[in-house]
Design brief:
There is one protein chain. By secondary structure, this protein is mainly α. It has helices at about 10-15, 35-45, 50-60, 65-75, 95-105, 110-125, 125-145, 145-160. α3 packs across α4 (about 65-75). The chain is elongated, with a radius of gyration of 35 Å. The model has no long low-confidence stretch (mean pLDDT about 85).
């Protein structure tokens, strides 16, 4: 028993049976099996829409899902199920916080974000001036330029 790593009762059971189990289960019945002949007939008649076939099967008492019908129809056709491709990514207008981040960080933006920023600056030209002031202030802080701060502050204060 120790050599096999199996329990004593399992070995006893197998010895009494005269053979080890195969662990092979027979063919499994699917919920769609009673309707396969109907699907074959409808496919031979030229119907190709699995969703329409699923609705017809529902009217006949089938209570399985549409994917089971699609998989069965695909197997009968001899290929993988055809499904609609997922829609591409949807662009959403960025939140105010994300817009500020997009404006203040240099670098590459996605095509849609870049177009949004261009339209925003075109609609509100003062944003471009404010961005220039913020970038100048960033340089002053990074370089710890006290004299430059005074020179920067005067025109900004006058603009208010």
């Amino acid at each position: 028993m120790r050599e096999t790593g199996l329990s004593r009762n399992a070995v006893r059971h197998w010895l009494r049976a005269g053979t080890a189990p195969t662990w092979h289960k027979g063919e499994r019945a699917w919920i769609i099996d009673p309707f396969v002949s109907y699907l074959v007939r409808r496919l031979d008649e030229g119907e190709r829409n699995a969703t329409r076939l699923w609705r017809e099967l529902q009217a006949s008492g089938f209570w399985g899902g549409v994917m089971r019908v699609r998989l069965c129809v695909a197997a009968l056709r001899g290929g993988p199920p055809r499904m609609r491709s997922a829609p591409g990514p949807v662009w959403r207008r960025p939140s105010p916080r994300r817009t500020a981040r997009l404006l203040l960080t240099g670098g590459e933006h996605g095509e849609l974000d870049g177009r949004f920023l261009d339209a925003l600056v075109a609609a509100f030209p003062e944003i471009e001036r404010a961005l220039a002031e913020v970038k100048a202030f960033t340089v002053i802080v990074r370089e710890q330029d006290q004299a430059g701060f005074g020179a920067w502050l005067d025109p900004v204060a006058m603009a208010r």
